[in-house]
């Protein structure tokens, strides 16, 4: 099997994934997954598509991720892994879509409007 690549995005984070056959090693920005994402919840989020299909020990995954925070990066990584797994085996798409791993979460931060302190917040009204 050759190397399969895919891209995942979430908020302002972008993850590029390179999947090849191996022993289940996940490397993020040249660091081990447990070093880059110390939180067990974020590690769980990243591994969700692999666990759903039961192929945690079958593929080695190299990742370049940049932009955003750790939550956005982990979710971008999850989308990229799911897309790569679909490229490898198209029959897996139905199972991954049922879990919601194929859909790109399009929610991003709303821009700040002029004359306001935040996107929707208004300055305090003073009658007098």
Account of the 3D structure:
- The chain has one domain: Ribosomal Protein S5, domain 2.
- The N and C termini lie far apart (73 Å).
- Strands 1-2-5-3-4 form a five-stranded mixed β-sheet.
- β1 and β2 (13-21) form a beta hairpin.
- It has helices at residues 33-36, 40-53, 70-88, 93-99; strands spanning 4-10, 13-21, 26-28, 31-32, 59-66.
- It has 128 residues and is α+β, with helices and mostly antiparallel strands.
- 34% of the residues lie in helices and 23% in strands.
- α2 packs parallel to α3 (70-88).
**H-E order:** EEEEHHEHH
Mean of all residue-level pLDDT scores: 93
Q: What is the count of structural domains?
A: 1
Largest sheet: 5 strands, mixed
Distance between the termini: 73 Å
Helix percentage range = 25-40%
Helix count, per DSSP? 4
Residue fraction in strands: 15-25%
Overall form: elongated
At the third CATH level, what is the topology name? Ribosomal Protein S5, domain 2
CATH architecture: 2-Layer Sandwich
Cα-atom radius of gyration: 18 Å
């Amino acid at each position: 099997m050759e190397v399969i690549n895919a891209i995942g995005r979430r908020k302002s984070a972008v993850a590029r994934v390179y999947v090849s056959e191996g022993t289940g090693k996940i490397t993020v920005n040249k660091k081990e997954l447990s070093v880059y994402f110390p939180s067990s919840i974020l590690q769980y989020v990243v591994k969700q598509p692999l666990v759903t299909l039961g192929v945690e020990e079958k593929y080695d995954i190299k990742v370049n991720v940049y932009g955003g925070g750790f939550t956005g990066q982990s979710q971008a990584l999850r989308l990229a892994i799911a897309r790569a797994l679909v490229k490898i085996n198209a029959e897996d798409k139905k199972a991954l879509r049922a879990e919601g791993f194929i859909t790109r979460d399009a929610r991003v931060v709303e821009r700040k409007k002029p004359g306001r302190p935040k996107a929707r917040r208004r300055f305090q009204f003073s009658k007098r």
